[in-house]
Design brief:
The complex is a heterodimer. Chain A is mainly alpha-helical. Chain A contains eleven helices and no strands. Chain A is about 85% helix and about 0% strand. Chain A starts with 6 loop residues before the first helix and ends with a helix. Chain B has a domain of about 70 residues. Chain B has a six-stranded mixed beta sheet with strand order 5-6-7-3-8-9, with helices on both faces. In chain B, strand 6, helix 5 and strand 7 form a beta-alpha-beta unit. In chain B, helix 3 crosses helix 4. Chain B starts with a strand and ends with a helix. In chain B, about 40% of the residues are buried. Classes of the chains: A mainly alpha, B alpha/beta. At the A-B interface, helix 6, helix 7 and helix 10 of A face helix 2 of B.
């Protein structure tokens, strides 16, 4: 039987494609702005949000969106001072993991549900989920397109952007909200624990191969797509978790990129 | 007498417990090459920030002709922490300063980038990642980014500080060329008196509590040393 004759696999591929596209795009700016750690925290916050959504009887995605968007704005306000950023992110992260565990236990869900939030699940994706993912991805991409030049300037030359009179604080906050939305969307497949992989590794690898922002975005999307498509296929064939394959494939891209850089610089 | 681009009158800037300037008067004329000299910590960068409107004067005023909005400013800041892994090509870095809504560059904008790269002698290496080029080439790329929008006023904040002698003169020759051929007004902040003397037309010497403004032609480096307290 063909893989695509199964509705849930078709849905997983559709949703995965949208996820790869926004993660590749947003990721380039996440890396340029040194926000990998924050992205990691947002995925933990996403876990708490999903648990809260279930506890309230909403969808996991709604709970995730509320938690990640609110906390990204708070973090954005708190970490104006670079030196304070790491500590404040750690504190928030600890609080939210605790909240996630609390809401899960309050909502009387089985531990298998927690596992699927944390590690992602292919089987769980319904057509309605695909539509939600598509709409959110479209919103993220549209805002990105409108903000493209100022965001590019602020991310790749923060000092130059500030002296040229850009509203860099506003750009930061809007960008963090976009990251929060991407985290919530991508968690649908890879799970909140591994989400930062798609948001950081494809982009981190791409910057060693190409050297303009637009090319980095296209290559990062390419790396993310290969990881998601191949990961889904391998997961289907082997019946092992998809997030493992995606993580492994993206790590391969990243380490190959590091090796390439070493060779390139050495020559 | 040429028209002033910016006229500063009785400017005073104070922070809590610290008065940076009092009663500062000078003009930046159109086509001028004005150097601001003085020791570190005397408030040179603060003055730039005031001119850019990033901080409000506590006294006096800064008048812009015809208006602040009408004057396009290119600014090469003192510090930029771009490390060896900085990924963008020189060309892409220069184009960052193009304002607009389109995600891609128009034909006219690509032309602007090409012109900025040509006047800064970066055309040949425009595809090289900025993190991998020399300090002098980096400074030229910063200059190219600052002039890509064809500014009327170019502000250089100690842009030669990290450069060796040869590169310093190379950079300032480019700036002088821009000043003479494109009539870009230059506002050059430096503690380097011989360099100031060689390139600038006017000077503004800052010393805690006092200042002196005038034409550089009448001053020797020795006299500049006296009015700024700077050791050459």
């Amino acid at each position: 039987m063909s893989m695509f004759s199964l509705v849930f696999m078709r849905n997983a591929y559709l949703a995965g494609t949208f996820i790869a596209i926004i993660c590749g795009t947003i990721g380039v700016f996440v890396i340029a702005r040194n926000l990998s750690f924050l992205t990691h925290t947002l995925s933990e916050i996403g876990f708490a949000g999903a648990a809260f959504g279930i506890f309230m009887g909403w969808t996991a995605l709604s709970g995730m969106l509320i938690f990640t968007v609110i906390s990204s704005v708070i973090v954005g306000q708190m970490s104006v001072k670079q030196s304070r950023r790491e500590a404040s992110i750690s504190a928030i992260s600890a609080l939210f993991i605790g909240l996630g565990i609390l809401f899960l236990s309050l909502s009387n869900q089985t531990s298998s549900y927690a596992t699927s939030i944390l590690f992602g699940s292919v089987i769980g994706i319904a057509s309605a989920d695909v539509i939600r993912v598509a709409v959110l991805s479209a919103v993220v991409l549209l805002v990105m397109l409108c903000l493209y030049r100022p965001l590019k300037f602020d991310s790749f030359d923060a000092i130059g952007a500030r002296v040229s009179g850009l509203w860099t604080t506003a750009i930061s906050v809007v960008f963090l909200v976009l990251v929060a939305m991407s985290v919530s969307v991508a968690a649908q497949i890879v799970g909140s624990l591994l989400i930062f992989i798609l948001l950081t590794l494809p982009a981190a690898a791409a910057r060693y191969f190409v050297h303009t922002v637009s090319k980095m975005i296209f290559l990062a999307i390419g790396f993310a797509l290969v990881g998601v498509w191949l990961g889904l296929y391998l997961s289907y064939v082997t019946n092992l978790p998809v997030s493992f394959f995606i993580a492994a494939i993206e790590c391969v891209f990243y380490f190959v990129a590091l090796g390439y850089q070493r060779l390139h610089v050495g020559s | 007498m040429t028209e002033p681009l910016i006229a500063v009158q009785h400017l005073g800037i104070s922070f809590p417990n610290n008065q940076v300037f009092k009663d500062l008067d000078f003009n930046i004329e159109q086509g001028d090459f004005l150097t601001v000299i003085g020791e570190n910590g005397v408030g040179k960068t603060t003055l730039i920030r005031a001119l850019l409107g990033m901080i409000k004067p506590t006294a006096g005023q800064i008048n812009y002709y015809p208006s602040k909005k009408a004057i396009k400013v290119g600014y090469v800041p003192q510090f930029r922490n771009l490390d060896q892994e900085y990924p963008l090509t020189i060309e892409d870095f220069v184009s960052l300063n193009l304002k607009g809504w389109r995600p891609w560059l128009s034909k006219a904008e690509r032309q602007q980038v090409a012109t900025a790269l040509a006047v800064t002698n970066l055309k040949k290496i425009r595809q090289r990642p900025l993190g991998m080029v020399s300090g002098g080439e980096k400074q030229r790329a910063y200059l190219a980014q600052a002039i890509v929008q064809a500014p009327q006023l170019l502000i250089l904040d100690e842009s030669t500080a990290s450069l060796d002698n040869e590169m310093k003169y190379e950079l300032l020759n480019l700036v002088q060329n821009l000043n003479q051929t494109s009539n870009i007004t230059v506002f050059f902040v430096t503690p380097d008196l011989p360099l100031a003397k060689q390139y600038a037309k006017h000077y503004l010497a800052l010393k805690p509590g006092q200042q002196q403004f005038g034409a550089l032609a009448d001053m020797s480096v020795e006299q500049l040393k006296e009015v700024t307290n700077v050791n050459v």
